């Protein structure tokens, strides 16, 4: 694991870990007020089966049905993070490439597994948009997020599909896709893109980060290869119960409703942030995820003052391709956003002193 450059192991939870309940969390991209009551009750009921070893067949079948795939194309994992580790350890690759700025765990997992990783860094001047031609032709593993954390960019599915090649594994992290209304530009469920591996997480929309549940959608031979690298019973009984119920029609309808609410709340946040444009604040747009990336002067001091005022936000300098002038803000309800914007005004004033 290389030690120079950004800290690839820094995640949003570090921003709130030592702040207790006093901090309003805009640093972690987990939907607020989750898990809902019906999900908590379902998880509680699953505890009656803890004496038996986990049986993932029903959950795997439910996920497969949700995406219109055979079960052989589904692998349940302890969150999307485990999937990155499995890919790094199980696949025999010569030249892995990670498209940045994005979630840093894929690169960290690859480096921990002994791989030398190349980076394709998208530029703010280009709106952090993907140019498939920028990816080396001989890359045999390419990792990209969609919508991308932290830029909130939603790349067109046809653009990402252009990265597919014979002999190349194309990993698309769709951990936040269910927060996009209609899941437009999703590749999950596609079987016509060679080498495609799609990762999904159930921890963001349903507030299950502490439970650890996600899944991989890929060709049967890839799923089998990753499964061989897993320990026995990698996903707990409560996590399996969550996987099964969170892809049910009721849950999908609730997630779709939540995605539209997030979009409205994000628009409200961005409108408020634009008011700070004369002070040098820039919003990375268009934004399609449940978070917004901003660049502003003296961001380090602003983040410190925001913390003193009771708000935790995500620093941007641990993402390759960004610097300390960038901050990521999770989308919250309008009341919270209004309070945050007032605190931001105060924090920027204090930073100017």
Automatic annotation (TrEMBL):
Q: Which domain of life is it from?
A: Bacteria
Q: What is its EC number?
A: 2.6.1.-
Q: What GO molecular function annotation could you give as one example from this UniProt entry?
A: pyridoxal phosphate binding
What cofactor is this protein dependent on?
pyridoxal 5'-phosphate
State the UniProt keywords alphabetically: Aminotransferase, Pyridoxal phosphate, Transferase
* Pfam families listed in its UniProt record: Aminotran_1_2
Query: What is stated as this protein's family in its record?
Result: Belongs to the class-I pyridoxal-phosphate-dependent aminotransferase family.
| Listed NCBIfam families | PRK07908.1 (NF005915)
What is this protein called in UniProt? Aminotransferase
Species, as recorded: Streptomyces phaeofaciens
């Amino acid at each position: 694991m290389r030690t120079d450059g950004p800290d690839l192991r820094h995640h949003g939870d570090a921003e709130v870990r030592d702040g207790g309940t006093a901090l309003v969390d805009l640093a972690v991209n987990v939907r607020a007020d989750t898990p809902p009551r019906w999900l908590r009750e379902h998880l509680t009921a699953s505890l009656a089966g803890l004496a038996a070893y986990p049986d993932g067949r029903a959950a795997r079948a439910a996920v497969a049905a949700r995406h219109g795939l055979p079960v052989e194309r589904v692998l349940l994992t302890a969150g999307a993070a485990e999937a990155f580790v499995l890919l790094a350890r199980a696949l025999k690759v010569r030249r892995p490439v990670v498209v940045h700025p994005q979630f840093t765990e894929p690169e960290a997992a690859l480096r921990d597994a002994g791989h030398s990783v190349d980076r394709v860094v998208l530029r703010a001047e280009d709106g952090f948009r993907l140019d498939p031609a920028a990816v080396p032709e001989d890359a045999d593993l390419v990792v990209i997020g969609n919508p991308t954390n932290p830029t909130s960019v939603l790349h067109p599915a046809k653009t990402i599909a252009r990265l597919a090649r014979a002999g190349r594994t194309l990993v698309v992290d769709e951990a936040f896709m269910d927060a996009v209304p209609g899941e437009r530009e999703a590749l999950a469920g596609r079987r016509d893109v060679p080498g495609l591996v799609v990762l999904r997480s159930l921890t963001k929309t349903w507030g299950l980060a502490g439970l650890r549940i996600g899944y991989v959608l890929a060709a049967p031979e890839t799923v089998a290869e990753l499964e061989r690298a897993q320990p026995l019973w990698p996903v707990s009984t409560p996590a399996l119960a969550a996987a099964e119920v969170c892809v049910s029609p009721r849950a999908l309808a609730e997630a779709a409703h939540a995605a539209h609410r997030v979009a409205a709340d994000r628009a409200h946040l961005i409108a408020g942030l634009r008011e700070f444009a004369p002070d040098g604040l820039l919003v990375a747009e268009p934004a399609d995820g449940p978070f917004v990336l901003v660049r502003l002067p003296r961001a380090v001091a602003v983040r410190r003052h925001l913390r003193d005022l009771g708000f935790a936000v995500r620093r941007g300098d641990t993402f390759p391709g960004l610097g300390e002038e960038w901050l990521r803000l999770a989308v919250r309800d309008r009341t919270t956003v209004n309070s945050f914007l007032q605190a931001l005004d105060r924090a920027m004033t204090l930073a100017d002193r």
